[in-house]
């Protein structure tokens, strides 16, 4: 089998490299591709790469993710987040391939008071969210227009991703070394998602125990760990874990000040509620892991705190924050 992974230098792409290497998929040819090998804003470059590599499984971990900059770079955001996935979907339906694509809580406006279901209407607030929503719609449209029983897709919506790259937790730990007090937003709700956790759950979804493609219902899935939090709680938790792990910080959790989002204006609007209900993937993971893979089920049932604590401890231990 040929596996093509886009976004090799991003948080999720790096996590895929490490998880796929651990799984020792020697019998498969895996192509990891970054911006230098294929610029996703260039349709011809994508088509040529697909022709050369003939993937049976495409993992699209690349995206235009600069949320605030997207307000200025609208065409570029749409080219990468909407046009590129459409081309990948066209290839998948033509060749009977599987497409694994990632999306975001930002496709919702965040006004719902409970968790969003996969079936809830998209209503993105900013350009990034709109371009990601357009990518979701493009994939759905291509698959609906060209039914091929061999082809399948999963769009995994996730939130607050952290891994090997820039993210909120790293920013907080850097600021915690420099400052004695810090204001953090306390009225935006979501779930921190570890990139390796997400890569591992994604692979459990698409590959069986013999590392062959499994079939699953094409569609949207919400992929986040259990629980929920706010940026403020996540900051307090991360700082406390770092202190317990021996980090030399000026900041203490009791000097983190909870503020409303209105006190921290940013160029792009963010959803106040990023909670995603896990029902679709819950049903699938239950079916997949029934009897055969208890470890995967336990991983799926993990709450956000455990992987965040592991991540922070690792950053402190290796002085990477
Ligand atoms: N980060 C989050 O908090 C978050 C939350 C919800 C959903 N998501 C979604 O999760 C997925 C993975 O996110 P992530 O956190 O891993 O993002 P990331 O760390 O920003 O990585 C994105 C990758 O996409 C690549 N890329 C950007 N423009 C490109 C282009 N024109 N051609 C080729 N590659 C290009 C980047 O390449 P360079 O390294 O060269 O810049 C980068 O390696 C994305 O679909 C994102 O929308 C992320």
Can you give a write-up of this model?
The protein has 321 residues and is an alpha/beta fold. It has a domain at 2-162 and 193-226 and 276-303: 3-Layer(aba) Sandwich (Rossmann fold). It contains ten helices and twelve strands. The strands form four sheets. The chain has a six-stranded parallel β-sheet with strand order 2-1-3-4-5-10, sandwiched between helices. A two-stranded parallel ribbon has the order 6-9. The protein is globular, with a radius of gyration of 19 Å. Bound molecules: NADP nicotinamide-adenine-dinucleotide phosphate.
Give the topology, please:
Elements: E1 2-6, H1 11-22, E2 29-33, H2 43-53, E3 57-60, H3 74-95, E4 98-104, H4 127-145, E5 152-158, E6 161-162, H5 168-178, E7 182-185, E8 189-190, E9 193-194, H6 195-206, E10 219-222, E11 229-230, H7 231-244, E12 256-259, H8 279-289, H9 294-301, H10 305-317
Parallel strand pairs: 1-2, 1-3, 3-4, 4-5, 5-10, 6-9, 7-12
Antiparallel strand pairs: 8-11
